[in-house]
Amino acid sequence: MANYRRTAQLCETDAAYIAGLVDGEGSVTLGRKHRNENRQLVVSISNNEICLLEFVLNRVKTGKITRKRKTRPHHASSYTYAVYNRQALALLEQIQPYLKTCKARRAEIILRDYIRLTSRNGKYRTEQLQERKAFERRVLAIKPG
């Protein structure tokens, strides 16, 4: 069995700060790594300041930082911190009380329903899959504004 890193327990100040970064520069979403895969929970923050994302990674103890591809030579380097699935859920549990944007509502629904509606092996019976797809539509329908 794989030995997964556990999401660190954050102090209140760090949880609030990271929530602010997610609200301003990040996302709480259900994304796919590949087109035909099931959607998975993703909490991410993008920024040009890698030291900011390294701070998050050092505090949370899970996730990874990737360099985003430049689309124009004159664009600044940009990076994304991302954490997935159960580790993202553990982070969301800690930062959700401090989220202020539409991401707070997404987090609320995800925290309530994600575990119940997510199969560990990715296989679903027809009725489970219908309920899972309805959950995904509810989460993704929440937009800024």
What is the CATH first-level class name? Alpha Beta
Strand order of the largest sheet: 1-2-4-3
Query: What name goes with the CATH superfamily?
Result: Homing endonucleases
**Total strand count, please?**
4
If you consult CATH, what is the topology?
A: Endonuclease I-creI
Description:
The protein has 145 residues and is α+β, with helices and mostly antiparallel strands. It has one domain (12-141): Roll (Endonuclease I-creI). 47% of the residues lie in helices and 18% in strands. The protein has helices at residues 12-25, 50-60, 85-95, 102-117, 126-141, and strands at 26-31, 40-47, 64-68, 78-84. The chain has a four-stranded antiparallel β-sheet with strand order 1-2-4-3. Helix 4 runs antiparallel to helix 5. It is globular.
Short description:
It contains five helices and four strands. It is an alpha+beta fold and 145 residues long.
List the helices and strands and how they pair.
Blueprint: H1 12-25, E1 26-31, E2 40-47, H2 50-60, E3 64-68, E4 78-84, H3 85-95, H4 102-117, H5 126-141
Antiparallel strand pairs: 1-2, 2-4, 3-4
Helix pairs in contact: 4-5
Features:
145 residues, alpha+beta, four-stranded antiparallel sheet, 18% strand
